Amino acid sequence: MPGFPVLDVAIGLAFLYLLFALTCTTLNEVIAIVSRRRATTLYEAIAQLLGGTGMADELYQHASIRSLVNPRTPGAKPSYIPAERFAVALTDHITKKDSVADPKAIAAGIQTLPAAASTQLLALFQLSEGHPVEFQRRVSDWYNETMDRASGWYKRAVQRQTYVLAAILVLWLNLDSVQLFNRLWSDTAFRTAAVEQAKARIEATGTAEVPVMEYTDADAIDAGTPVQTGTVALTDSETQLLTSLGGWQPDRQRLSADIVLKGDGWRVRSAWFARSAGSHLLGWFITILAISLGAPFWFDVLNKFMNLRNTGRAPDERRKA
Amino acid sequence: MKHRALALVLLVLVAAPAHGQTSGSNIVLKTAWAKRFSNQLSIDAKMTVLGLNKGKEDDGDSHGGSRQNTIGLPMVAEILNGLAATQAAGRAALAPGNNPQKDVYGAWRLWFEHPASGGTQCQTFSGSAPAICEHQTVTGADSNPAHSFEIHPVFDVNGISVARASMVLTADNDSVMDTDKAFTDFTGMHKILTVARSTTALTLNSIKVVDNYVQLHVRVTRTRVATTRQKDGTVDGGFVVADVFSSSDEEQILRSNVRLFYFRDSDPGDALDGAAAGDEFTVVGTPRLDLDAVLKKSEGKKTVSMPLPFEFVIVALLDND
After folding, report:
1. Which terminal residue of chain A has fewer beta carbons within 10 Å of its beta carbon, N or C?
2. B194, A219: Cβ pair inside 8 Å?
3. How many angstroms separate the CA of residue B70 from the nearest CA in chain A?
4. Which pairs from A237-240 meet CB under 8 Å and 24+ separation?
5. Do the strands B120-122 and B25-30 form a parallel or antiparallel pair, or are they unpaired?
6. pLDDT digits (tens, 9 = 90+) for B237-271
7. Element (H, E) at B54
8. Where are the alpha helices (DSSP H) in chain A?
9. Can you tell me the distance from the alpha carbon of A67 to that of A89, in angstroms, rounded to the nearest whole number?
10. How far is it, in rounded angstroms, from Cα A219 to Cα A215?
């Protein structure tokens, strides 16, 4: 867009950050699915709540908890357990064969538990003044408080993983923000391609606030799964744009030139590496930080830039659009 | 160089405020589902009730929360006047008990009253929802999960009719809002519904909207259009179109052409079913999103913003002029 090079550079950069962040999101999701991280985090939180994995394992064998996982996946653990279901399962586990509504059975059962769990549960039982329903409500609240913390652990773990993935991606593809900025500034064709693809993505995806979705089963009123359009998967043209970034190629060419001029050897290669790393360090750092902000953030920014760009259009251009 | 610096400043200025910003919450609906129910009063659902509220609430309702149901959304089912002796059987039927699977029939209600904060809830009938919808399973209490979909009022639960006793205003309901105040709440400058529409889905974005019950003085302008029950196709009620008058100035029409839905087997149903053009009533209504208006205004558009379109389900007849 010849009229707004400054804005278009900003759009191009935000769009590239969005693509990098989307790549990271995909990798994060793959790792979360393969490692069953949500289920593992929940299990760890419950184990901590109950003072060890032994009691957590026993509780996970309760029919109401087992029913939360796909029976065809042996050993699978649920990713989510409703608080009331947890409270009922725990009370049932405590009272064993007696009724869950029997205060004496609850009090006796609590005494048989490991120290860490029995101390907390006894306090909850005393606070509920021996009422089984109130006891279950307090257990639910206790569970919810722990789940809030577990949710924080999960987010922090994902954030740490994002930093690591971002660093790998940046070093592997040599994603130097300073270099990208210069390229967008000086290469009109590259800039135009980036802006056009950013426009296409926003049209396909909606705005950051209002995503465009589709359903897998279009005909039936009561079947199907929603799918967010054009978000995580990169389109062919976006992949093409990323491959056109150059990566390490200019640096490798410089190394080849050094070898021709000075001969091959560890001194030449070390000097080349130090020079390359030194010149990219700031750019890499900025890119890693940008990726860690996440795809929704850059999508939002991109959307704002696009709105700004559309507001500033000349009337004849607006008619053409 | 000056321009390059300007581009960077622009990026930072626009990006910084975007971080962590939220603009209301989203509901993703299957278009075929919205079309099926947009002109109907009611819906039939099978739902797993996770919890039922215990104490008395301002509106005197009893609400059972669910995350697994045939609607495909986190939801609650509300029995009006739920603590009244006449509703005891219905309330007991809605409580999770030994069999939390319930057949619930009542008026569908989409309203952004208890939305997930800044998130997206997606109607999901099968498979796993994408990450954007993930939070829908984890927030809120079991009796009241974060939701924007309700069956409210419930007419029947597990074959026990609660309609007649529901649709009278009792002293238990302290939350009936004055017309002028409620319409100000519904039509304020920020009460904008934004819709992103694809071939198979509608993403609805709105900020939170309040007011469950509104007192209305209305004059019928168009007599009833019948509605039918999903389960068996029988006529279960209908809607009339009416002018709604201001509560502070009885001559002033606040809004024309408002759809007022009613259940036939109820006091307001008895009155409205035979109403003629020009008849006036004072009633209590529960506001809900006018899906018919949403579908019509978004037809052929990718995204569109509109003043929040609403209609009412009439739940009590106060005066029949």
Report:
1. C
2. no
3. 7
4. A237/A197, A237/A200, A238/A19, A238/A197, A238/A201
5. parallel
6. 999 999 999 999 989 999 999 999 999 999 999 99
7. none
8. 5-35, 37-49, 53-60, 63-66, 83-95, 103-111, 115-127, 132-173, 177-186, 188-205, 236-243, 249-262, 266-292, 295-311, 315-320
9. 12
10. 9
CB neighbour burial string for B47-75, b if at least 16 within 10 angstroms, e if fewer: bbbbbbbeeebebbbbbbbbbbbebbbbb
pTM assigned to the model: 0.67
What is the rounded CA–CA span in Å between residue B278 and residue A94?
65
B298 touches chain A (CB under 8 A): no
Q: Which two tokens stand for residue A176?
A: 């130097």
The residue type found at B122 is C
Range scoring the smallest mean pLDDT among A32-41, A151-160, A311-320, B197-206: A311-320
How far, in Å, are B113, B205, B318 from residue B150 at the CA level? 10, 17, 24
The ipTM estimated for the assembled molecules is 0.85
Distance CA B176, CA B213 (A): 5
Q: Tens digits of per-residue pLDDT, B162-209?
A: 999 999 898 888 889 999 999 999 988 778 899 999 999 999 999 888
Closest B-chain CA to A219:
B32
By residue count, chain B amounts to 321
What pLDDT is stored for residue A166 in this prediction? 94
